[in-house]
Amino acid sequence: MSRVVSGALALVAAGWTMSAQAADLYGSRAPNTVNRSLLSPDSWAGPYLGANIGYAWGSVANNPAKPSGFVGGVQAGYNWQNGGPWVFGLEGDIQATGAEETFAPWKFSNPWFGTIRGRAGYAFNNILFFGTGGLAFGELRATTFGLTESHTNVGWTLGAGAEVGLAPNWSAKIEYLYVDLANSNFVITGTSNGYRFGLIRAGVNYRF
User: Fold this and answer.
1) Alpha-carbon separation of residue 106 from 112, 147, 190 (angstroms)
2) Sign of the dihedral defined by the CA atoms of residues 86, 91, 96, 101, in that order
3) Three-state DSSP class for 61?
């Protein structure tokens, strides 16, 4: 992976560790974490870890290929809620994807991508509606006549979704993201290529 991706993943890991340590430090006295029932308006606060699966479809800049395919991965995050319905958070995820298409003689694929996003939402007890946006990064791979070239592109993402509490520590979500992995120059295509795609996915989270 590139230095950008390595640094981004390190940032997610560091944020997760700090969030978990903060929760352990406060223990039962932590603000907004006393009542862990998801029927409580305070229950969205705290760290969480989960998994997701979905489908992505998009297009390659300066090429007719339109890669699409199934997506799956993991996410981790932390929410803050100060006794009211507004919820703010930070979430990072990493995804493996099967998105690809061949438009002779070119084959483009997106083997993986990740995001680091802020989240802001409004909770109706155990239902949370949210918007999200931030940094996106991922690999765009081009293949032609037996030659393969790949670039790790960095861009942005924006989306929205909803999450519902199912049990005291479990929730399920559905969300849509638009992801723009900015262009980079490919030698084998002789032009600048990037990948823009939509993603709809469902997931589950475990809250600590």
Assistant:
1) 19, 10, 12
2) positive
3) coil
Buried b (16+ CB within 10 A) or exposed e, 121-138: bebeebebebebbbbbbb
CB atoms within 10 A of CB 185: 10
The C-alpha atoms of residue 76 and residue 130 are separated, in whole angstroms, by 16
**What is d(CA 37, CA 41) in angstroms, rounded to the nearest whole number?**
9
Of 108, 84, 106, whose CA–CA distance to 197 is shortest?
A: 108
Residue found by looking up tokens 């483009």 in the block: 108
Q: How many domains does the chain have?
A: 1
* Cβ 134 vs Cβ 156: under 8 Å: yes
Residue-level pLDDT, tens digit, the chain, 208 residues: 444 445 444 444 444 444 445 444 434 334 443 344 444 545 899 999 999 999 999 999 999 999 999 999 999 999 999 889 999 999 999 999 999 999 989 999 999 999 999 999 999 989 999 999 999 999 999 999 999 999 999 999 999 999 999 988 999 999 999 999 999 999 999 999 999 999 999 999 999 9
Residue 33: CATH number of its domain: 2.40.160.20
pTM attached to this predicted model: 0.81
Q: What string of H, E and C letters represents the secondary structure of 139-198?
A: EEEEEECCEEEEEEEEEEEEEEEEEEEEECCEEEEEEEEEEEEEEEEECCCCEEEEEEEE
User: To the nearest 10°, the Cα dihedral for 71, 171, 90, 68?
Assistant: 10
